[in-house]
Amino acid sequence: MTATDDGGLWVYAERRGSSFTPVSLEILGKAKELSRQLSVEVTAVTVGNDGGAASELQRYGPDHVLELVHPLLAVHDGKAYAKALGTAIQKAHPSTLLLGATRNGQDLAGRLAVRLRTGLTAHVTSLELDGGRQLVGWVPGFGGGIEAGITCPEKRPQMVTVRPGVFLAPPEGSPTGDVKTVKVDLSEEDVGSRRVSFEPKGSSIDLTRADVIVVGGRGTGGNFGRIEELARRLGGEVGATRVATDAGWVDRDRMIGQTGVITRPKLVLVLGVSGAVQFTVGIDGAGTVVAVNRDPEAPIFEHADLGIVGDLGPVVESLLRSLGGA
Amino acid sequence: MHIVVCMKVVPRPEEVKVDLATKMLDRAGARSVINSSDMNALETALAFRDAHGGKVTVLSMGPPPFEPYLRVALAVGADEAILLSDRAFGGADTLATSYTLAAGIRKIGKVDLVLCGEESSDGGTSQVPPSIAEWLNASQATYVERLVPGKHGTVHATRVLEDGKETVELSVPAVISVVVGSNEPRFLDYDRWAFAQSAKVQVWNEKELCGDPQYLGLKGSPTAVAGLREVKKAGRRRETVTVTPDEAASRIKAEIDRAKIARS
Ligand SMILES: Cc1cc2nc3c(=O)[nH]c(=O)nc-3n(C[C@H](O)[C@H](O)[C@H](O)COP(=O)(O)OP(=O)(O)OC[C@H]3O[C@@H](n4cnc5c(N)ncnc54)[C@H](O)[C@@H]3O)c2cc1C
Ligand SMILES: Nc1ncnc2c1ncn2[C@@H]1O[C@H](COP(=O)(O)O)[C@@H](O)[C@H]1O
Fold first, then answer.
1. Distance from B194 to chain A by nearest Cα, in Å?
2. Could you tell me which residues are beta bridge partners of residue B116?
3. Fewer CB atoms < 10 Å away: N or C end of chain B?
4. Is the CB of residue A298 below 6 angstroms from any atom belonging to ligand 1?
5. Residue whose CA is closest, atom 7 of ligand 2?
6. A87 interfacial to chain B (CB closer than 8 Å)
């Protein structure tokens, strides 16, 4: 497809259980904003074994909701989902497709981009339009506090996966747009994998929604018991750097940053973290940042409202004491 | 089963610099390592082979200096190593990279499983594995932590998702990406070291790969780097103090109280 195609802006609304992933709604909101600048229409597209749930999407302002359905699409399969979505895209020629950078979102995006022979910008943390109405996806993490703006000048649709938590989902409004349900043409050979079992996570944690986060890094020395206690006392959640999750001190889904999650709590308390850019992109949207680090030169202080230079251990104990209880 | 492991050599993350003039990553000053989740992919492949038979081939696309790293994979236990190397492959984004690797896999011939890491650390996107799967019309499972044989020549893969663990049955050929840290990669085998030193690492250039040139390298890459800029620093107060723990605690408490009121 060429750069002149303009069947509008499509957003992949990824189903999770009976609803959608939060990032689906976040990018739908962003798409709405971009569509005003571009004067194009926004289509939210879903894939599944039935329609349903479209009314939820309609509350986020799309011009159209497109449901691609087939019994073989009940559970995510990269191969089958890419065929279903790819076929619809080849018919309607959207200029842009946004997807959430969830695990299944990426599983689908990588495959779909090849199917459509188009460019894919992955993991963006901000989206802008350049003068020529072209989308620029900014991707941090090339070291040294630099981010790269990636475009797809000639091929369409331009595909972008967006990190969860970087955009705020708009407030729900009254329903808009029409709903179209299309039965996909699909056979057994189009399916690559079949779910045998699913073991839901006991307590699923979503740091993008937390109001208060207490983050521990290498400087905690793995002593997360006190960090958990502090988070509990503050009614917040525990977050961690990659060093801490790689070491197995904390579950990987508590990792904050470029590979982890992008958070925007009211307050984040950052303990024993140096402040690498791959981490700080995950807290730059926070209301207030307080950091404790014994190294006065630590870059984290550049990203903090209040920085305490000192050993985190005694500070944590003193804070726990002043919050009352054991 | 014939298992191909896609292995990438990456600069040590902390040593990479960016050349603002050329908008390119400057790897020159950085030492390299094998991408960490690729080591987990290699271990998954070797364990699968050791338990169920077959052969493991490591495949990499990159410049000639990647070759010694492929020998490391041989010393660890891989049976064969192939490097796809040509100036024509340079400047590839995920579309072109996956095309080139898929072309290499096609040339290898009968391959049942392609194992990749979940993501490469040098600006990686985790998109290469599902992209390879599409080029090969293979089935796929990404973010896999466990791989075992299933019935009728299938494999069962357990995927780590945000809301739980999903086990899927996959038809082969299949492309699988392995999550970082899902196993303990084995050490170099001393007895294999001599073999690895003298073994032949096959190097295939563009001509030998027989790919379609329109999909290779920079020309086959639809995305472009339009600009580089410094990451915007959020407007922070940046007040730094050195105080006693008790004083620190009360300062922090004041921030907490203020933050809660300010944004609720
Ligand atoms: C492609 C890529 C993606 C990445 N993605 C992420 C990501 O999503 N999230 C992430 O966090 N990282 C990520 N990283 C890693 C990142 O670059 C850093 O290595 C990591 O954030 C450092 O973690 P840290 O601050 O815990 O450890 P360190 O950098 O080792 O810092 C530890 C800090 O603790 C301080 N300290 C030590 N002891 C004490 C004490 N007793 N009291 C007070 N302070 C103390 C030290 O002064 C030091 O500043 C990524 C890297 C790459 C290359
Ligand atoms: N140049 C390459 N050579 C071999 N394997 C690669 C290459 N690039 C990516 N891969 C594989 O694809 C995985 C995901 O990479 P990426 O999509 O770049 O994050 C890596 O962990 C490797 O297994």
1. 33
2. B177
3. C
4. yes
5. B8
6. no
Q: What is the pLDDT along chain A (326 residues), one digit of tens a residue?
A: 444 457 799 999 999 988 999 999 999 999 999 999 889 999 999 999 987 788 999 999 999 999 999 999 999 999 999 999 999 999 999 999 999 999 999 999 999 999 999 999 999 989 999 887 789 999 876 555 678 899 999 999 999 999 988 888 889 999 999 999 999 999 999 999 999 999 998 776 889 889 999 999 999 999 999 999 999 999 999 999 999 999 999 998 899 998 888 999 999 999 999 999 889 989 988 999 999 999 999 999 999 999 999 999 999 999 999 988 54
Between the alpha carbon of residue A100 and those of residues A165, B126, B250, the distances in Å are 10, 14, 40
- Which CATH number does the domain housing residue A290 bear? 3.40.50.1220
Closest C-alpha residue for ligand 1 atom 22: A243
Do A59 and A178 reside in the same domain of the chain?
yes
* Number of residues that make up chain B: 264
Q: Are B131 and A110 a contacting pair at CB < 8 A?
A: yes
Choose one of A128, A157, A190: the last residue of a domain: A190
Greatest Cα pair distance in chain B: 70
- Global confidence as pTM: 0.85
The answer to whether the Cβ–Cβ distance between B251 and A308 falls below 8 Å is yes
Ligand minimally distant from the alpha carbon of residue A281: 1
Ranges assigned E (strand) in chain B: 2-6, 9-11, 17-19, 24-26, 32-34, 55-61, 80-84, 113-117, 139-149, 155-161, 164-170, 174-178, 201-204, 224-230, 239-241
Q: Are residues A148 and A218 in the same domain?
A: no
Domain that holds residue A93: 9-190
| Ligand 2, CB within 6 Å, residue ranges | B 6-8, 35, 37-38, 41, 60-62, 94, 97, 101, 116-117, 119-120, 124-129
Could you say which architecture CATH assigns to the domain B2-215? 3-Layer(aba) Sandwich (3.40)
In a domain, A195, yes or no: no
Same domain flag for A121 and A251: no
> Would you say residue A202 lies in a domain?
no
- For residue A3, is it within any domain? no
Question: Which of B3, B4, B6 most suits a substitution to test ligand 2, by most atoms within 8 Å of the C-beta?
Answer: B6
Does one domain contain both A184 and A212? no
Taking the CA of residue B247 and the nearest CA in chain A, the distance in Å comes to 9
Please check whether residue A1 lies inside any domain of the structure: no
Distance B226 CA to ligand 1 centre (A): 29
Q: Are strands B174-178 and B24-26 parallel, antiparallel or unpaired?
A: unpaired
For chain B, which residues make up each domain, given as ranges?
Answer: 2-215
ipTM: 0.86
A119, A147, A253: residue with CB nearest B95: A119
| DSSP assignment of A231-242 | HHHTT-EEEE-H
Specify the number of domains making up chain A: 2
- Between B164, B223, B255, which is nearest A290 by CB? B255
Which run of H or E residues covers position A67? strand A64-69
Question: Where does a domain end: A158, A190, A222?
Answer: A190
Span from the CA of B182 to the centroid of ligand 1 (angstroms): 21
Query: Which ligand gives the minimal distance to the CA of A276?
Result: 1
Q: Which residues contact A106 (CB under 8 A, 6 or more apart)?
A: A99, A122, A161, B125, B126, B127, B130, B142
The minimum-distance atom of ligand 2 relative to the CA of B41 is 23
